[in-house]
C-alpha cells in the first residue's frame, strides 16, 4: 500500500537563530544553527570543539567539549564579492535547553574575538565614608593588598603592642593586570583579554570588601565596579 505524505511533513523544520524563528512542521525541530562572524585580522581555529582565537592582542583558547554541537570554520571563496569569515554552529534534534546553548557558545566566541582585538577593561571605585581604604598594588601588577577597610584592626598578643590593620590579599587571575587610575582618585583599572578572568578578578576584589554584621543600607563602604569598557577603543 502506497503511503501518501502531506506536503508540510516533508519540510525539514529548522531554526536560524540569527533571524526570526521559522514555523516548525509536525515532525518537530531537526536542525538549528547560528553564525559567528569575525574580521580578517582575527584567526579562529576549531579542533575537537576546542576553540582557539588569535588576534593583535594575543591568543585565547576555550574548551567547549562539554557542549554537544557541531562547530566548524567557514572560509570564504576567492571569488566572493564580499568575503565573510564566520564560524557555523549546528545542533541536530535539540530540545529547548540544547538549542539555547547555541547563543551561549556564540557569545563565548564573540567575547574571545573581542578580547584578542580590543581587550576588556573594568574600572572600580573605592567607596568610603570615614575610614579611607588603602589599596597597595604589587610591582608586577598581578595582586593587590587592601587595608583599613572600615578601620578594622586586630589586637596582638602583647598588651603593649599596638593593634595592626587587617590585610586582605587578592591575587588576580591569569592574564589580568591592575593599576591605579592616573586621572581619577581612588579608582582601580583592571585589564585583560579574557572577559571571564577580568570579571572574576573584579568580583574577587569586591567580595573581599563586604560589610558584615552591619546595615548595608547605611554602611556603603567597599570597592565597586563603576565602568566596563575595552582597552583599545574600536574605530567607528
Automatic annotation (TrEMBL):
Q: Tell me where on the tree of life, at the top rank, the source sits.
A: Eukaryota
Q: Keywords on this record?
A: Ribonucleoprotein, Ribosomal protein
- From the UniProt record, give one GO term of the biological process aspect: cytoplasmic translation
Q: Listed GO molecular functions?
A: rRNA binding; structural constituent of ribosome
Q: Which stretches make up the Large ribosomal subunit protein uL6 alpha-beta domain? A: 40-119, 168-222
Answer whether the UniProt record assigns the keyword Transmembrane to this protein.
no
Q: Which InterPro entries match?
A: Ribosomal_uL6-like, Ribosomal_uL6-like_a/b-dom_sf, Ribosomal_uL6_a/b-dom
PANTHER family associated with the record: 60S RIBOSOMAL PROTEIN L9, 60S/50S RIBOSOMAL PROTEIN L6/L9
Give the similarity note: Belongs to the universal ribosomal protein uL6 family.
What is the protein name given in its UniProt record?
BQ2448_1636 protein
Q: Which organism is it from?
A: Microbotryum intermedium
